[in-house]
C-alpha cells in the first residue's frame, strides 16, 4: 500500500511539473513558410525598445512580450541596435 502511495505521489508531481513547463512555453519560428506549414494564425505584430547588451537579450524581451499577449509562437521581423546606447528596437509577428 505504501509503495502505491509513493508511486501515485511521484506521478502526480511529475504531471504537475510537466503541465507547468508546457503551459507557458512559447516557440520562436524562423520564417513565414514555417508558420504557413504549421497552419499558424497571426495575432499581429508586437514591438518594444529594450536595454540589452546582445541581440539574444533583445529576443528574450520580445519573447516575453509575445507570451504576455497569449502567443504560442513568434517570429522576429526586425531588430536594430542603437550604436551609441544600450538600446535595441525589436519587433515580432506573433501567432497562435
UniProtKB/TrEMBL annotation:
Domain YdgH/BhsA/McbA-like as annotated: residue spans: 40-96
Keyword Signal belongs to the record: yes
Gene3D superfamilies (alphabetical): Flavin-binding protein dodecin
Record keywords: Signal
Keyword Protein transport: no
InterPro entries registered for this protein in UniProt: BhsA/McbA_stress_biofilm_assoc (IPR051096), Dodecin-like (IPR025543), YdgH-like_sf (IPR036275), YdgH/BhsA/McbA-like_dom (IPR010854)
Signal peptide: 1-25
Identification of the protein by name: DUF1471 domain-containing protein
